[in-house]
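Input sequence (139 aa), recorded before submission:
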Amino acid sequence: MRAEFTDDLITGNELIDSQHEELIGRINKLLDSCEAGEGKISAIKMLDYLAKYTDIHFGDEEALQKEVCYPDYDKHHAKHEEFKQTIQELNEMLQEEGPSDAFVQKVEEHVVKWFYRHISSFDRSVAEYINMRENGGRL
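Predicted structure, token format:
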């Protein structure tokens, strides 16, 4: 399963949308690396980049939420922390067994699907909140 940045994932915030697009591209590169048999070192480098970029992205999202006094900031932050834990668990799995089929399946389930759900629910909610604030309470 490959991730794809589709119109339904657009939040309307240029920075956040461009970061989502970059993250999806990096997720696909990780999966491609694993499936092409490029080896453990390559997959570790890809996952490490994904983890670092995710930290930057989550920091930017959370700064935006604080700036606009987003009321569900704590819930959103908690989801980000859960994802960081998932990346750590994937890193441990990758270190132990390399880019196995089971690893690829976990990435698809716990990274690709997570991002789709997160963007289409949590991030969209932030975008709608900002839009309502900017338009006097109207969507």
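Checked by second reader. Residues 101-134 form the longest helix (34 residues).
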